[in-house]
Amino acid sequence: MKSIDSPNILIVTTPIRPIPTDYPPMGSLSVITALKKAGFNNAEFYNIDFLRPSFSDVLNYIENKKPDIFGISAVVSTAYEYTKKLSLEIKKMLPDTTIIMGGNLGASAEIVLNKTGVEFICTGEGELTAVDFVNCWITAESKEDFKNVKGLAFIDQKNEMVVTPFPEPIEAEKVYDIDWSLMGSGEKADFFFPLSEFAPIIATSFSLDPRVLEPHRKNKRVATLPASKGCVARCTFCHRWDKGIRYIPVSILMERLDFFIQKYNVGYVCFADENFGTDRKWLANFIEEVAKRDILWRVSGMRVNTINPEAIKKMKEAGCCCIYYGMESGSQKILDVMEKVTKVEQNYNAVKWMAENNLYTIVQLIIGMPGETQQTIEETCKFTSYFVEQSAKTDPNALSINFAQALPGTPLYEIARRKGDIKTSMEGEEQYLLQISDRDARDGETFLNFTEYPRIILEKWNFEIQMKTRYSYIKKWGIDNYYKVVLNSPRFNNLTEVKGDRLKKDSGYFADPARQNEMP
Fold first, then answer.
1. What does pLDDT average to in each consecutive run of 10 residues of the chain (520 residues)?
2. CB of 301 within 8 A of CB of 255?
3. What is the 3-state secondary structure (H, E, C) of 134-201?
């Protein structure tokens, strides 16, 4: 290791979906902010996911920067192939550069450390670990010295796997404490803080609310802002590092929101949480404060067992236009397999209360879990039919249907290993990571079959849910309303609108519905 006081540090993202995601790279930005606060001012950010340069351009950029420490943010396990290719090339090109990786791909630490050019893995929150890692790197004489850095995994000089203890979680008030100037300006700011008239999220989440048409909201921008970190649940298909949930104090959250309003003229906010508002005291305080700012906002993730009609009404009055829930299934049996700790009746209540308050939502489903049967699918069809029967304004195609995907670090992944669908050898597990790389869970090609039915039946279930939901809508509201809703659907328009000479593409975030909307 080089003994220098201020090493050159370069942190990069990996491509996540077919097109750049407009969700800001919170992890990378938080880590770089922490490094700079610790005095490491030579820390830079290279957003490969946003820029989408050719691979040769990526290598040229990194070679010119000659980082002492090179960090890869691999936020999803499907980033394995790109991470492997990039890290091996960097080690070949810059053999003295130390490579560290963070993100959920770290759940496959043993494979990453043995099969790629990555030398260290951050196994949890990166803010504290990154600072301690760099401080250690400056004086370290061997890998043995890094055993004192909390939150690391690496192969030591004896060729043995080392996993150090997790650091203490950072305080709630410091969660996502980001220097947003790191994002850049110009085109980058326009992408992550887009004008409302150009932001796809307005069409998909806000456009059905008449408040969008109020004159003073014209030329406002859209921002994504987390209000918390973590989740209260431990769903069997979901991988996470964090234990529990931390809500950012409302006073601090409002300071950050005010910064967006003043700096970027933000008038629309996507609160990017997995578990928004479980703390009811926090939610009441949040509603009271956000109402003072006259913004329109969306909730990206809320649990159906924490909501009630009064809260939904107050949220709408405070500017909420849309709430997404992790409903996952219309079958209690499958919810229990998922360990959702929710009741199917709560799913029904949530969609009913949303319709009563004229708030937008979609039903997000995961099908093909262990124990899925024709009966559980019929129960899900009954639920999605109920969803569209609540309001004639509901788009019956507004279903997000994904196949259960085994992500490393989840119980579902271990089930696949025990069944032999994922070989337990290192080579077998790597083969699986390569197979799911650069894929969406909806694509119908890389998911594993956890049921007792032939794979073709799983494919059938996807379309069965869609068809029965459409039929229920038409039966309740009529074919004319169906045509009206579908042809005026902002989600439908998004896939066909031409901007300049470029056809807008489906981001892949929602299965909308699956392969029926794929563009050539």
1. 76 88 92 96 94 96 97 92 97 97 94 97 93 95 94 94 93 93 85 88 87 94 94 86 88 97 96 92 97 96 94 97 95 96 97 96 95 98 98 91 92 93 92 84 74 94 96 97 85 49 46 40
2. no
3. HHHHHHCCCHHHHHHCCCEEEECCCCCEEECCCCCCCCHHHCCCCCHHHHCCCHHHHHHCCEHHHCHH
Q: Which helix (H) or strand (E) covers residue 229, if one does? A: strand 228-230
Q: Is the bond into 67 cis (omega within 30 degrees of 0)?
A: no
**Which residues have a Cβ under 8 Å from the Cβ of 44 and sit 6 or more positions away?**
8, 9, 10, 11, 32, 65
Q: Which residues of 64-83 are buried (b: 16+ CB within 10 A; e: fewer)?
A: ebebbbbbbbbbbbbbbbbb
> Does residue 388 contact residue 472 with C-beta atoms inside 8 Å?
yes
What end-to-end distance do the CA atoms of the chain give, in Å?
A: 49
User: Within 13 A of 464's CA, how many CA atoms are on the CB side?
Assistant: 17
DSSP structure class, residue 419: H
